[in-house]
Amino acid sequence: MSLILSDTYVQLALGSLILLISFILFRKGNHLEEPPLVPYKYPIIGHTIDYFKDNKNFIKKCHAEYGEIFSLYVFGRILTFVGKDLSSEVFRNHKDFNFADATNENFPMDHFLNRPQRFFKLLPKVVLINLSGEMKFYTERVQRQLIISIDEIIGNGKVLEPPLKFVQFIIAKPIAATMVGEELSNDKELVNSFANATTDFIPFISVPPVLGFIHPYLHKQLMINMFRYLNNPFKMHRELIKKKITPVIEKRLREMKEMGDNYVSPIDILQRYIELLHKDYSVDIDVITDYMIVTIFVSVHTTSNHLTFSLDELVSNPQFYDELLEEQEQLYKNNENPYYSVEQIAKMEKLDSFIKETMRVNANYVSLQHLTLSSYFTFSNGYQVPKGRIVYIRTGEIHSDEELQGQNADEFYAFRYLKKNSRATRAEKSFLSFGLGKHMCPGRHFAINEIKIALHYLLLKYNIRKANSEKIEPKIRGHFKFPGDEELIFEKRE
Ligand code: HEM
């Protein structure tokens, strides 16, 4: 028997038979009322080329022809897309759909770090309670560090090209001060790793999932192996972060043990992780390092991107510049203290509306992918999706819908949200840049405050302009939007 099985042809035949049976069983087992699958010309390739070539117009066309919910065949996988009528059902039913699990399919961070799935479950709570919930402790520190980093990076004036590269450094220092304390945030090597750790991941995210044409699992395995075995600058950042935080963690644990109830806890996210994860004053430093890495990953690049988008919109829409500047000058004049309080920052209402409008128009056309967790899910219009299906939200369409956004939704209007009780951090089904529902971004209060403060100081200190008269357009890669690379000119104001 073993002799027969060892024959390559017999093995191949058996393998094919198993595949065929599984395929038939899969087809037979799926009695669901699935959303329409948009027809495609080329087998295997499906809609992949149209989807990546001109995502916005292709999705628009499919919506016009197939309605609120439809499916496409992209990189060997059926993906379902929903718009303004059904998206809230995805966010509301968080036991049926999960964003982190869908992200994990293409970008398995837990695997990269050799951790089991959902290892970092403390993270959203820590961010919500200890960062966004305790903003008053961080506001002054963020301003102090932003002023220093703006001075270090732009000084008496500079041309930033591409701007995002510089903005990452401006943003990384105050985030480092919040995560690991102000003393460590003076360490240039550490801040460099905070600034670049995420960007150094981008080559991995950008690998086109061609193996997905055979099976999505193969692409995931390729990414994990590339990450683990190829020369990888991200590992260098991780080692550096570990080296820098280790003595601080050890010192803090020693003092916590010695001083007991008299220990005055430093206020930063590192301390929170130490307190939550230590056992008898001993902690696995690799676990804390990985928590730090994931926290950097969700915070630095997202905030830098949106600050850069804001600068691009500021110079591309000069009609709003003077009014935005005036608000900042008023606030500055009326401030009697060296730094602003959370309440004073809340008064930057025009700036808040401007940032929200920037986020609205620069959202990815489709985003917020959610993996279907339950055996199937039935939408209110009767269509069903099976377990394992990734459902995308047509965010761009929702963000440019006149019924939801008001008049001229395709134009940039900086004061769209002014006096409408519609802050950038508010949960609204018409504004999805921070997601919605149970998993809505818990760091949004911190992020918006940091972007506001950075813009406030930049507007006061510099005349900001672009080199030519054309509007700076975002770079589009498939369904992703990135800030443009065009130079931004910062001239010191008198
Ligand atoms: C402008 C900057 C930011 C943007 C646009 C952004 C956007 C998002 C989005 C779209 C989600 C998914 C929400 C969903 O599942 O519905 C998310 C989740 C998350 N964000 Fe942010 N984010 C930003 C900044 C930050 C910052 C500064 C932090 C923390 C320091 C942070 C921490 C998190 C965490 C922990 C989650 C996971 C929440 C969960 O799974 O329950 N984010 N963010």
Description of the structure:
It contains 22 helices and twelve strands. The chain has a single domain, classed as Cytochrome P450 (Cytochrome p450), CATH 1.10.630.10. 39% of the residues are buried. The chain has 494 residues and is an alpha+beta fold. It starts with a helix and ends with a strand. Strands 1-2-8-5-3 form a five-stranded mixed beta sheet. Helices cover 53% and strands 10% of the residues. The chain is globular, with a radius of gyration of 25 Å. Mean pLDDT is 92; it is low at 1-6 and 18-29. Bound molecules: protoporphyrin IX containing FE. Protoporphyrin IX containing FE binds next to helix 6, helix 8, helix 16 and helix 22.
SSE map:
Blueprint: H1 2-5, H2 8-29, H3 48-53, H4 55-66, E1 69-74, E2 77-82, H5 87-92, E3 97-98, H6 99-106, H7 109-112, H8 123-131, H9 135-153, E4 157-160, H10 163-180, H11 188-196, H12 202-205, H13 216-229, H14 233-259, H15 269-277, H16 285-316, H17 321-334, H18 342-346, H19 349-361, E5 367-372, E6 376-378, E7 384-386, E8 390-393, H20 395-399, H21 402-405, H22 444-461, E9 462-466, E10 475-477, E11 480-482, E12 488-492
Bound molecules: protoporphyrin IX containing FE (HEM).
